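Milestone M4 deliverable, item 7.
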Amino acid sequence: MEIAPLLSVGRGVTAIIGSGGKTTLLYTLAEELKEKGKVIICTTTRIRIPDRYQTVTGGVKEILSAMEDNDVVCAGTPAESGKIGTSPVTFEELTGIADYVLTEADGSRGLPLKAHAGYEPVIPEISESVIHLIGADGIGGIVSEVCHRPELWTEITGGSLQDRVTPDDIAHVIDTEDLGGRYFINKVDDGKISIRAEELAALLPGPVVMGSLQKGEYSKWE
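Output delivered:
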């Protein structure tokens, strides 16, 4: 089962936000979509330079040249610590080069949950869709341990940094931030987590897909 059709990923720009596996989803979608057309992966913040794809830090000509021999190309500018930042090429130009443009639009420091600061996520205006990731392994965890920007999280929930995260907390943060999009609950790896994920899915305001990127198993929540 492929995840791209479940998330209704079409041509143009797709922004990936949230936490709990954004980069893995970025690569998974790229591998699926390259069977249908050319793919560019990029970021509006910073991501690690991918090992599996050629990274281009130049302009349109350089990207076009790289895409002659590659179905997937990463576009960006050099950043610190082995990362890349936003490409110098506009998203309008990128959509003229590739069929699919996948961009990671915020950071979460590898944590399963996050609250967004006022300046994030950085979603391109021409995005056709937004996918909001949630790490199911954060449900039941301590706020200070499983949430990126935990102080912002507790400002929204009215709780403390030592509270355990509930599905209601996650739904409340998402509803308050009102970032829209489709939701993918990742890391649903066993029965216990599945029950919690279903509780959360029932509270979310938009279409929900649940599953495990690691296992390659996904389904729509009905």
